[in-house]
Amino acid sequence: MDMNNKIEEFFEELEKVAPKQKDIRERVKHINGDFASFMKTKIQADWDFYAISYLKSFAHQIPDSVVLPDIYEKLQKSEITLEADLLDLPYAGNILEAYAWFYNRNKGAGTIENIKNEMEFLKDKNFQQEYLLTVASRYKFYDELQSLLDLVGDGFFVEDYSLRLGKIKEKLSWSAPGLQAPDFKAMKLDSTWVRLSDFKGKVVVVDVWATWCEPCKRMMPLFHQLEQELKDENIAFINVCVGTWVEADLWKKMAKEFQVENNTSFVDGWKSDFVKDYHITGVPRYMIFDEEGRIVSVKAPNPLKPALKELILETLNH
After folding, report:
1. 69/177 Cα distance (integer angstroms)
2. Pairing relation of β-strands 235-243 and 264-268?
3. pLDDT of 196-238, one tens digit each?
4. pLDDT 10s digits, 104-132
5. Are residues 299 and 284 in contact, defined by beta-carbon separation less than 8 angstroms?
């Protein structure tokens, strides 16, 4: 069965179940008390979350020819009502994130640039804080959290939300700008070692890649081009390939192919100190360190984005 059929089957099932969900809501509707109020909110939120999550998961696979069920029409911005006791649900942040995505789904939902729009939709500050902390809880690097804090400010989070933000900061603190970077060493083509500490006094820009990584290969000429553009500046560009020694010959071949022989190096193993210290779980990765060997960014933009060059120059002129 192809995906289109599966999607249509899901929508058909959704429409079949809708009357039952509505009937349960109507029964609870006439009951008074806090518990009944909470159950009304939960029933509606669970239903919405179920429908939106599916749509979000397959958004890019649903052809224009597929007609969305009425439930999605009813979920348009003007008809979504968020009740205060939604925050009593253990997965409240995920539900709020789903609502925010649905509201902003055609406008780049989830990006820093659009989080403000999503916050305006949520309106209530407690909803906004819960939503933002849910987003932030998935961040892997302090750079990402800092972008969010630059948007709303540290003072935006209060009371329990502030405490939760503190825990997220603590989790990401290893990658905080200004922290002294762990030294690392990698093998050069001539079998000598290169270390981050060798370049103290220079801004250091690192391209972390692997021989099997296609995006790495596409970015490497752009990284090399950036190096050429800034060759007269006080900057060291380092190319670090992570792999196993069975890949060494391929690494050497690729270094020549991409004209990075002068600054290429090799780290043996995905369990090495370099990989552990910098939480390398995927490539390519780009990192910037200042003249004192302090972290500027361990998750810098890729060379396709002007922001990488801007951050390097900002570090150089600091």
Report:
1. 47
2. parallel
3. 999 999 999 999 999 999 999 999 999 999 999 999 999 999 9
4. 776 655 577 778 888 888 889 999 999 99
5. no
Q: Residue 155 has what pLDDT?
A: 92
Q: Are 135 and 100 in contact (CB under 8 A)?
A: no
The CA-based dihedral angle spanning residues 61, 63, 64, 66, taken in that order and rounded to the nearest 10 degrees: -110
Rounded to whole angstroms, how far apart are CA atoms 272 and 181?
16
Structure tokens of 137?
A: 């809880």
pTM of the complete model: 0.84
- Rg of the chain's alpha carbons, rounded to an integer? 25
**Quick one: which of 290, 297, 298, 299 has its CA closest to 318?**
290
Note the residue count of the chain.
Answer: 318
Strand 235-243 and strand 203-209: pairing?
parallel
The closest alpha carbon to 101, from 142, 51, 145, belongs to 51
Q: Give residue 175's identity as a one-letter amino acid code.
A: S
Contact 148, 112 (CB under 8 A): yes
Looking at this protein, which amino acid is placed at residue 205? Answer: V
Distance of CA 111 to the CA centre of its chain: 9
